[in-house]
From TrEMBL:
Molecular functions per Gene Ontology: alcohol dehydrogenase (NAD+) activity; S-(hydroxymethyl)glutathione dehydrogenase [NAD(P)+] activity; zinc ion binding
Entries under InterPro entries matching the protein: ADH-like_C, ADH-like_N, ADH_3, GroES-like_sf, NAD(P)-bd_dom_sf
Cofactor (UniProt): Zn(2+)
Protein's name according to its UniProt entry: S-(hydroxymethyl)glutathione dehydrogenase
Reaction catalysed by this enzyme: a secondary alcohol + NAD(+) = a ketone + NADH + H(+); S-(hydroxymethyl)glutathione + NAD(+) = S-formylglutathione + NADH + H(+); S-nitrosoglutathione + NADH + H(+) = S-(hydroxysulfenamide)glutathione + NAD(+); S-(hydroxymethyl)glutathione + NADP(+) = S-formylglutathione + NADPH + H(+)
Stored CDD domains: alcohol_DH_class_III (cd08300)
Entry keyword set: Metal-binding, NAD, Oxidoreductase, Zinc
GO terms for biological process, alphabetical: formaldehyde catabolic process
Organism: Thiohalobacter thiocyanaticus
E.C. number: 1.1.1.1, 1.1.1.284
Length: 369
């Protein structure tokens, strides 16, 4: 079938709206109508050319709110009309990762998901006969996409897809990192570095976890109003400090925070986020994604003296079994999404969504098809 899609032909080029061909679903696959898609910084990261796994041309996008159009052979749990959120980390339910309660990193189709192919090593997208890569197994910047059933969370059809699409990445990642990865306890102190869709969702998660003090850090002070509205108790602009952020936070908290989260993708900030944690027990969780060749550094002494460095992908959430409940929590008013959608744009204006992100003028833009 034909579909309107935003194609990334090459790194660092604006996306181009094209009519592409989408092949029907094969064994275990599902054809989806994408109703809405968020734009995450990771889409911009891959488009920047810094992603070692970035393959071009591709259809980016991984925060989708979708309707099932057609099920391929062998699909058992879905039918046309169902509402689903595509998962860049699937849940096959059978691999050793799915069987472990310690991780959400299902590896059943990881080799193809991260290299731009469907599980059978072929692609469903083409333009004038030229194949186009998939992205993170989702490719939600297309009116129609094809996703394996094991990478689809079936959600309550009462939920507005132009909002819960953000549970496909940003909001779930932030909240899940607090709950599942760091396991923040009531009364804790928390520092959040970077106040985009991820960092603001970490703040939401910290409030849910009943943290006492939530220190929000960003170089863009325009982000502070939303951070405070969601529950930040202190806002810090590194540019306004006479010291390093680490020193400032250690000073503010009388020794460092119990938990910190890096939500930027800056390896220097990752170090600060670790080092502003309390000696003896502080835990720092890396969420941000950094470019090819970049590495984190600290003195081993920081870890020897009881700080822990962790990382979190999709907030440690097992998508098919746990994401539907995030949608219910949104519907029950326990998870905030609406205020994080600062812009809603038609597909034709998708490059504006990237411009707004880079200019620090949006939290999340949602593309409507
Ligand atoms: P975003 O662009 O919306 O927000 C990033 C924020 O960081 C901005 O407010 C920006 O002003 C701030 N910032 C930039 N440099 C800073 C600095 N030196 N100090 C303080 N603040 C700074 O991005 P986002 O969509 O929220 O994503 C954040 C990061 O998380 C990205 O690296 C993204 O790729 C990554 N991510 C990871 C996962 C995961 O599963 N691990 C999921 C989603 C996104
Ligand atoms: N391709 C990058 C890594 C990108 C990355 O870490 N992706 C996160 C999700 S970001 C969502 O916005 C993830 O879940 N990764 C799990 C995995 O298995 O890659 C690189 O550096 O190679
Ligand atoms: Zn994302
Ligand atoms: Zn699995």
């Amino acid at each position: 079938m034909k579909a309107r899609a935003a194609v990334a032909w090459a790194p660092r080029q604006p996306l181009s709206i094209e009519e592409i061909d989408v092949e029907g679903p094969k064994e275990g696959e599902v054809l989806l109508k994408v109703v809405a898609s968020g734009v995450c910084h990771t889409d911009a990261f891959t488009l920047s050319g810094e992603d070692p796994e970035g393959a071009f041309p591709c259809v980016l996008g991984h925060e989708g709110g979708c309707e099932v159009v057609e099920c391929g052979p062998g699909v058992k749990g879905l039918k046309p009309g169902d509402h689903v959120i595509p998962l860049y980390i699937p849940e096959c339910g059978e691999c050793e990762y799915c069987r472990s309660p310690k991780t959400n990193l299902c590896q059943s189709i990881a080799a193809t998901v991260w290299t731009g192919y469907m599980p059978d090593h072929t692609r469903r997208f083409s333009h004038k006969g030229k194949p186009i890569y998939h992205y993170m197994g989702c490719s939600t910047f297309s009116e129609y996409t094809v996703v394996p059933e094991i990478a689809l969370a079936k959600v309550n059809p009462a939920a507005p897809l132009d909002k819960v699409c953000l549970l496909g990445c940003g909001i779930t990642t932030g909240i899940g990192a607090v709950r599942n990865t760091a396991q923040v306890e009531p009364g804790s102190s928390v520092a959040v570095f970077g106040l985009g869709g991820i960092g603001l969702s970490v703040i939401q998660g910290a409030v849910m976890a009943q943290a006492d003090r939530i220190i929000a850090v960003d170089v863009n002070p325009d982000k502070f109003e939303m951070a405070r509205a969601l529950g930040a108790t202190d806002c810090v602009n590194p540019a306004e400090l006479g010291t390093t952020v680490t020193e400032a936070i250690v000073e503010m908290t009388g020794g460092g925070v119990d938990y910190s989260f890096e939500c930027i993708g800056n390896v220097e900030v990752m170090r600060e986020a670790l080092e502003c944690c309390h000696m003896g027990w502080g835990v720092s969780t890396i969420i941000g994604v950094a470019g090819a060749g970049q590495e984190i550094h600290t003195r081993p002494f920081q870890l020897v003296t009881g700080r822990t460095w962790k990382g979190s992908a999709f907030g440690g959430v097992k998508g098919r079994s746990q994401l539907p409940d995030y949608v219910e929590q949104y519907l029950n008013g326990r998870i905030e999404i609406d205020r994080l959608v600062t812009h809603t744009l038609p597909l034709e204006e998708i490059n504006t969504a990237f411009d707004l992100m880079h200019a620090g003028k949006s939290i999340r833009s949602v593309i409507i098809f």
